[in-house]
From TrEMBL:
<dbReference type="InterPro" id="IPR013656">
    <property type="entry name" value="PAS_4"/>
</dbReference>
<protein>
    <recommendedName>
        <fullName>histidine kinase</fullName>
        <ecNumber>2.7.13.3</ecNumber>
    </recommendedName>
</protein>
<dbReference type="GO" id="GO:0005524">
    <property type="term" value="F:ATP binding"/>
</dbReference>
<dbReference type="Pfam" id="PF02518">
    <property type="entry name" value="HATPase_c"/>
</dbReference>
<dbReference type="InterPro" id="IPR003594">
    <property type="entry name" value="HATPase_dom"/>
</dbReference>
<keyword id="KW-0418">Kinase</keyword>
<dbReference type="Pfam" id="PF00512">
    <property type="entry name" value="HisKA"/>
</dbReference>
<keyword id="KW-0902">Two-component regulatory system</keyword>
<dbReference type="GO" id="GO:0000155">
    <property type="term" value="F:phosphorelay sensor kinase activity"/>
</dbReference>
<dbReference type="Pfam" id="PF08448">
    <property type="entry name" value="PAS_4"/>
</dbReference>
<keyword id="KW-0547">Nucleotide-binding</keyword>
<dbReference type="InterPro" id="IPR036890">
    <property type="entry name" value="HATPase_C_sf"/>
</dbReference>
<dbReference type="InterPro" id="IPR036097">
    <property type="entry name" value="HisK_dim/P_sf"/>
</dbReference>
<keyword id="KW-0597">Phosphoprotein</keyword>
<dbReference type="InterPro" id="IPR005467">
    <property type="entry name" value="His_kinase_dom"/>
</dbReference>
<feature type="domain" description="Histidine kinase">
    <location>
        <begin position="133"/>
        <end position="351"/>
    </location>
</feature>
<dbReference type="InterPro" id="IPR035965">
    <property type="entry name" value="PAS-like_dom_sf"/>
</dbReference>
Amino acid sequence: MTDYAAFDQLATLIAVVRPDGQVRFANAAFEDQLRLSRRAAQQRTLFEWFADDRRLRETLAAVQGNRFATARFEAQLRRAPHEELLDVLVLVSQTDDPQHLVVEMIEATQQARHEREERNLDQVRSSKDLIRNLAHEIKNPLGGLRGAAQLLALELGQDSELLEYTQVIVHEADRLQVLVDRLLAPHRQAQVVGDVNIHEVCERVRALVLIEFPKLTIRRDYDISLPEFRGDREQLIQALLNVVQNAAQALQPQLVAGQPAQIVLRTRAARQVTLGKQRWRLALELHVEDNGPGVPSEIRDRLFFPLVTGREGGTGLGLHLAQTIVQAHQGIIDCDSEPGRTDFRILLPLP
């Protein structure tokens, strides 16, 4: 079955079967997910792993009989004993050999994650130009507004009761200037590319956050075999710092109440990852996981939009800037959150 060896490079579960369900080939993802060897899979029928095999039997017969070239349906796979059933989207396709059919099984969680990643990328891209143009439009009159307030203050003199109002105008103009500068920062800074060790980045961020939150527990769970990659070290430190600070601020009420508050920095290698419609053989997976209250459901889908925040007094720029920096490195950030557990996952391609 060397003709199907390329399926080993895919992250989805692939089985090449006869119309009677006999497995002729199973790819590496199939072996890993169902906890068995390829040789063992070839001694069984694919029906044995389906919780309800009637739909699979009907579909194999329909595709093999040329009623459909491709068919799809949802199903559940059995795994090792005592493991939960695996929800999958099943695609059955013809091959050049009428006695062989390809059955692709895509994990429902994986499918949902890919759709969410694509949606996040499209949303951030569409808002990026709008935010940049809007920031420039705000900045242009801002300097004139501040200058006019200062000239008015000079005309009024130090003893005028109205001087306080001009000071308010200057102060608010300066605050808006800082906000605009933060919006424009990722678009102004050119990348300083060099070799980056992700664990050096993590350690730097860990030290900075513990200075601000000394009672916080930040646990390390590193895969030290991960290779270095090319990137802008300082920008990546800033991106990760924004994410970890966001988690630490969410844990602040627990710290004040003396309750357990923990962040875990976890690094892993991910294989056969799609980022921005491009397939990467290897990627770096960095998780920032906390045991806080979770992201409010009303902002979960807009979490990486600028000026969106669930925290009183927050600017809503930290996660947006982090996403912008990571996207400039061809990566992405996503978030999985529920009460008691929030997991920000940063994916970066590796050479």
